[in-house]
Amino acid sequence: MQSFTFGIYPGSxxxxxxxxxxxxxxxxxxxxRICEALDDLQPQGKSFVVRAYVQYIGKGQSVWPTPExxxxxxxxxxxxxxxLCYRAIDDPLENWIRYIQETVQQYGSDLIxxxxxxxxNSKEAGGDAISPDVRPALIAGVLAAKEEIRxxxxxxxxxxxxxxxxxxxxxxxxxxxxLGGSAFVAALDYVALDFFPDVFVPLPPNVVLSDxxxxxxxxxxxxxxxxxxxxxxxxxxxxxxxxxxxxxxxYERQSQMLEAIMRAVYEHRETFxxxxxxxxxxxxxxxxxxDIFYQFGLLRDDYSPKPAYAAFKKLVAELSL
Length: 321
Prior knowledge:
The chain has 321 residues and is of the alpha/beta class. It has helices at residues 31-41, 93-107, 134-152, 172-187, 209-227, 251-267, 269-272, 307-319; strands at 5-9, 14-15, 23-24, 48-58, 61-66, 78-86, 111-116, 157-162, 190-194, 236-241, 274-280. It has a single domain, classed as Glycosidases (TIM Barrel), CATH 3.20.20.80.
């Protein structure tokens, strides 16, 4: 049986539509409280993943690292899943490639995975498709990261993430296949799926959640990835999944949704070659703001737990392989 690892994005900043500023930021993260939560959530003797983000804006520069100083959360059994978002425009790819090489050199063995771009198929909140150059940047970035990792003799997975695509006219996956070819596919260690059932599009009342999750996973593996000729041997990771609270979205429902989705993903891990799951996110951006973008956390903004925190901890302990 293949290994299956869990993780979490431990920050509180959340991507929002560019028209609203691009990033929702609340009270500063408290590193000691994050460490306390990570130590509590990680089962003894099992590995755990910390997800972190930075936005590349061109000319070798990046902004908005979240959580700040993510390396402080690393241990021998807790490594970084580091996401290099691509938000540059009209920037030579040589700058991007050099930035990736320097990132690999800087973080080295603290990384378990390096994700090149964030949702390059999506222009919605947090998606890198707002950059017109993101597709060639994705291809060049994956190839550059893999080459640098091999040169340094490191063991770091290289991949990228997308959201699910049901539109048969969408050209993202076919073009990625054409642009990248066999060299790109050979460099991939995983593809991550970011999905949020019953968040941005409410589930129809007649849909059973576990069936809906299976349908999304089937579409992703056998339709989306297949359009780029990415084989079954390249594993899927759930890069982001969450269910926010609000005045109309109760805490108990968050806990129920989290458990149902995690168990459905885990149940189908062999069917679709899924190797891990990361929850988004640890702490609310602002627990008094009714906008759902501000309440994805397992903890309130003061670090007090919602019921979903205990549910997540229990499931991670039960299902970690």
